[in-house]
Specification:
The complex is a heterodimer.
Chain A (H helix, E strand, L loop, with lengths): L3 E5 L7 H10 L1 H6 L2 E2 L7 H9 L14 H11 L3 E5 L8 H10 L7 E8 L2 H13 L7 H9 L6 H10 L1 H9 L7 E5 L9 H9 L20 H14 L5 H14 L15 H21 L2 E3 L23 H52 L3 H20 L1
Parallel strand pairs in A: 1-3, 1-4, 2-3, 4-5, 5-6
Chain B lengths: L2 H16 L40 H12 L5 H9 L32 H17 L11 H12 L6 E4 L2 H13 L10 E5 L3 H15 L5 H11 L8 H11 L5 E4 L4 H5 L14 H14 L5 H19 L13 H18 L2 E3 L3 H4 L11 H13 L6 H5 L1
Parallel strand pairs in B: 1-2, 2-3, 3-4
Helix pairs in contact in B: 2-3, 2-4, 3-4, 4-11, 4-15, 7-11, 9-13, 11-12, 11-15, 12-15
Classes of the chains: A alpha/beta, B mainly alpha.
Chain lengths: 398, 398
């Protein structure tokens, strides 16, 4: 049984993809060193979280049946320390948290440590809207901002936003039965901090310091600019009912959003209107105070949560973007789709060629086998002679 | 009233509901047994309620239990299932009761009676899925070899009205059962293959219902909009494709299409009219969809399809007998009529004999509600939850 479990439950948009990528790529080296990241596929912990939280996710849920119990069993069987990490766990309800902790051995001899990575709301709000866009959402930014500020929080989008972003509530749900010294809050540094500062905080929180790990960034969840976000929203409105979720993921989310539009870093960045920014900064500050009051172990600095950009650039509204910039983003998107189409067509043609070659070889092998079998008997030889005579006669008459 | 008093009142209400009480929260003035009242807590720690050792349940859980108690015959095991249920999918987390101490964050505290039906429905559906996941499936009698050989031989004997029924299961199964009651079993040498259809609107609704029972179907409006925007016919509603498939397998003359099952009375010379049962209510269909979606991460596909089709659906249909069925909304009438005309054209082009007025395809009647109503679905979900788990003869035969 694992003596210690490090349970990382979010929040989204705090560098979790990079952390999980490093853990996954280095899992064998870590295991040799007594640290288990139990999964055979990159999204293993995501599937387990879908299972725990009974969450359909564009068809992926079919692969998630029993995934949490399998993960928990691996954790219980692993020696030393195990790590479980997925950011959507932040949205688990109290009954789900109870089930998760019990299944990992909490209260049964295992020392569970909770890790929550946090970033100030002024950066999280735009990032969450963009994440919604990458999951086929079509609502304008202004409406998104109104919905999340509505105290009733009614509806799927605000309910999800607060479930994964309201840090004190997440800590209440996940940390209610843990002593404060076993709750670790990792803060995301403000813009301009050294590039590897966040990694060094994760490394300290997960006990990875001093280990020889490949930490080159291979997988990330990058942000989009204003015109790119506007383009994606328009695209969603146009394709949502004609492109199935299984096709949307690789083509729109991965190819267009992650690999193409997020590379356009010269466009205006998405921020918040001034009044919303003030609200977000104030709210983040109250959360920082609450965390401080509770006496959790902080990796980083709670002032990162209180961060307020002193001289923010002018707000650029993605609901009224500059059409020239959107058109330029659209050209890049078209180019990416064309290149992809050409590559897929070539691949398809190559596969058709391979299939035809294989079919020719199979047919030739079959006819050779039959001829040999027929020539093995007198009657068969007579049949082959007769067949050849008939074929020659037929071709002459033709 | 102090914070301790408020919490004692909440604990008292939980105990009241667990004992089968029906008093609304706003009218509740009782307290928990002072001996069982633990220290005040603002987090989701233990409630110290006799019979309940979890955190204070969400307002939505408690309201569902109260309404279930209102149906009579409270069941303590069911009550605990409801309070421990993790509502599936995205929505509000455990909501706080109005009047409890304010934490300064989290969703606004609520009067449980005023919660929207959708939030309560998530709890009811979660509890139903929990119960269904472990339910026994009705046994399917396995015919002996002798019986199978006899059936096979009987199917090949000449008959006065040899026939087979093909087409959407929702159409075929009840008609087959009715014909068996009337002494007409499918089979016989040179059987006519009757494609059992209906008006175009019903075919489309049936197609969504079948999808809903099998897995994680989109909502009715989302699914329908997909086909309207594509201006095509859902494959399961395409009678011409079914006819073509059987025509290719047998021959075109062996396939006939029945739009009105009453026509089978004359075609098969039955001693009494052939009728189809009324369509399931919109609420029953939507409940099956929601529960099937909740089961998607809990139960593998084959078992899930059987649980919904053989255990849940018959119960939901029985408890909502007479409920309004679903229909295609009037705003999509042009699309429906266009698809109906295309279907009629394809059937005529295929050379199939059609029984029943083709007006059913081209100008389908509009009876029912244009979308499931959350209130009706919630009412039915509570009825199904409160329905005793005794075997139902209609379920076993289904």
């Amino acid at each position: 049984m694992s003596r210690t479990v490090l349970l990382h439950v979010g929040t989204p948009k705090t560098g979790t993809s990079h952390l999980q990528d490093v853990l996954f790529r280095n899992r064998h080296a870590l295991a040799a060193d007594g640290l288990t990241y139990p999964t055979d596929r990159f999204d293993g912990h995501f599937l387990a979280a879908l299972d725990l939280m009974r969450m359909p996710w564009g068809g992926l849920e079919a692969q998630a049946v029993g995934a949490w119990d399998r993960l928990a069993a691996e954790v219980r069987e692993a020696p030393g320390t195990s790590i479980v990490s997925h950011e959507i766990l932040a949205a688990a309800s109290a009954p789900q948290v109870g089930r998760a902790l019990a299944s990992l051995g909490h209260g049964d001899g295992t020392e569970v440590h909770l890790v929550v990575s946090v970033r100030d709301l002024a950066r999280q709000v735009p990032a969450e809207w963009q994440e919604n866009l990458k999951h086929r959402a079509t609502l304008p930014y202004a409406r998104f901002l109104r919905k999340i500020q509505d105290p009733s929080r009614r509806g799927r989008i605000p309910a999800w936003f607060w479930a994964v972003q309201e840090v004190p509530d997440i800590l209440d749900r996940w940390g209610a039965t843990l002593p404060p010294e076993r709750v670790h809050v990792v803060t995301v540094p403000p813009p301009g901090a050294p590039r590897d500062l966040l990694w060094s905080r994760f490394s300290a929180a997960f006990g990875l310091d001093g280990r020889d790990l490949d930490i080159a960034p291979e997988r990330a969840n990058p942000s989009l600019g204003v015109p790119e976000s506007a383009l994606l929203r328009r695209l969603n409105r146009s394709v949502n009912h004609v492109v199935d979720p299984g096709d949307y993921r690789p083509l729109v989310r991965e190819l267009l959003a992650h690999r193409t539009l997020s590379q356009r870093t010269d466009s205006p960045r998405l921020g918040l209107p001034e009044d919303v920014r003030e609200w977000a900064v104030d709210l983040s500050a109250t959360w920082a105070d609450e965390i401080e009051r509770r006496g959790y172990h902080v990796v980083g600095d709670l002032d990162d949560l209180r961060w307020a950009q002193s001289d923010p650039p002018p707000y650029v509204d993605p609901d009224r973007p500059k059409e020239k910039q959107v058109a330029a983003a659209a050209v890049d998107a078209l180019r990416a789709l064309l290149v992809e189409h050409v590559e897929l067509t070539r691949e398809r043609d190559a596969l058709i060629g391979e299939r035809d070659d294989a079919r020719g070889v199979a047919e030739s092998a079959t006819s050779t086998r039959w001829r040999r079998r027929l020539e093995g008997s007198a009657a068969g030889r007579r049949f082959v002679r007769g067949y050849r005579w008939w074929r020659e006669r037929s071709s002459r008459s033709a | 009233m102090g914070a301790d008093d408020d919490l004692a009142r909440a604990r008292g209400w939980v105990a009241h509901l667990l004992a089968g009480g029906t008093t609304p929260w706003t009218a509740w003035t009782g307290r928990a047994d002072p001996a069982s009242t633990g220290p005040a807590s603002t987090g989701p720690a233990s409630t110290d309620v006799p019979g309940w050792d979890g955190p204070l349940p969400g307002a939505q859980h408690l309201e569902v239990l109260r309404r279930l108690n209102g149906l009579g015959a409270p069941d303590p095991a069911l009550a605990r299932t409801v309070l421990a249920t993790a509502p599936p999918g995205r929505g509000a987390l455990d909501l706080r009761l109005a009047g409890l101490p304010n934490r300064g964050y989290g969703a606004r505290a609520v009067d449980p009676e005023a919660l929207p039906a959708d939030e309560l429905l998530r709890v009811a559906v979660g509890a139903l899925a929990d119960r269904l996941a472990t339910a026994d499936l009705p046994e399917r009698p396995v015919p002996t070899l002798r019986r199978r050989l006899e059936d096979e031989a009987r199917a090949r004997l000449p008959r006065r009205h040899p026939f087979r029924l093909v087409g959407p299961r929702a159409r075929v199964d009840p008609v087959r059962r009715r014909l068996q009651e009337l002494g007409r079993t499918p089979g016989g040498r040179g059987a006519v293959h009757y494609v059992v259809g209906a008006d175009t609107g019903r075919l489309v609704v049936d197609a969504w219902a079948a999808r809903a029972a099998e897995g994680t179907a989109p909502t009715w409006p989302e699914w329908l909009t997909t086909w309207v925007e594509r201006d095509s016919c859902p494959p399961r509603a395409d009678l011409a494709a079914v006819a073509a498939r059987w025509g290719a397998r047998e021959h075109v003359g062996a396939v006939e299409v029945v739009l009105d099952v009453g026509a089978l009375t004359g075609l098969l010379a039955t001693p009494a009219p052939v009728t189809a049962p009324p369509p399931p209510s919109a609420a029953a269909t939507e409940l099956v969809r929601r529960v099937s979606t909740a089961l998607a991460t809990e139960v593998e596909r084959g078992r899930r399809a059987r649980l919904t089709a053989e255990v849940l659906a018959p119960r939901a249909v029985r408890l909502d007998a007479g409920g309004e069925p679903l229909r295609v909304p009037g705003r999509h009438h042009d699309w429906l009529a266009r698809r109906g005309r295309a279907l009629a054209r394809d059937l005529a082009a295929g050379g199939y004999r059609v029984h029943g007025p083709t007006g059913l395809l081209e100008d389908p009647p509009a009876h029912g509600v244009p979308a499931p109503q959350d209130d009706a679905v919630l009412r039915l979900a509570l009825l199904v939850l409160g329905d005793p788990d005794r075997p139902d003869p209609s379920e076993v035969s289904a």
